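Readers outside the structure-tokenisation community will struggle with the description of the input data as it stands. For illustration, here is how one protein appears when written out as sequence plus structure tokens:
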Amino acid sequence: NAAMDRLAKKYNIGIISNIDDKMLGISRRHLRTDLDLVVTAQQVRSYMPEAAHFTETARRIGGKKGWLHIGSNYEHDVAPLLKMKVPVIWVNRHGEKLEGRKAPSATVKTFRDAAKKLGAS
């Protein structure tokens, strides 16, 4: 919550999730921060790593430029966005090795570290 609050002071923020709207609504009760964008699996009728979440996000915000994604799952969050040429910060909590996979724009250990990297500390 604290990192999201700090990010929201500088940036528009959103959630892109492999969940339905009702379940996300339940999860959102635990967030203090208002979201500018929400894209769910139910809305796009698809699950990541398929690109539907990200193409819908780009459609809603007006293109692939001007946004950055922070995600923790390489296959679901990082790889599809690298293919779209959208910057992505990988929250690599468990210290996974890239092992031949394309490097993200940045790698951090925690969401808080991502906020710091973006100047929202």
Q: What stands out?
A: The first strand starts at residue 14 and ends at 17.
